[in-house]
Design brief:
Blueprint lengths: L4 E3 L8 H8 L2 H17 L7 E3 L12 H16 L1
Parallel strand pairs: 1-2
Amino acid sequence: MSWQINYYFTSNGKAPVKEWLDSIGNEPKAEIFRIFELLCKYGTELGLPFVMLHGFQKKTRTTPRKEIEIAQKRMKEIQHG
């Protein structure tokens, strides 16, 4: 199965996830791209496109509500145009 990972783009053409990836250090970036490679190789078996909606470095066990809300808002934008 050929797989492609897409970045989320804002209405003004910015790619906040790509910008975030460009701003982080090499070690966390390498970990993320390793996951991308695994997704490209094995997929999720869902048959759906994979879109990078949001990125942040998690520093606690719980995901901050603000980070979840950003991803949810962007998902709604994609689903409803």
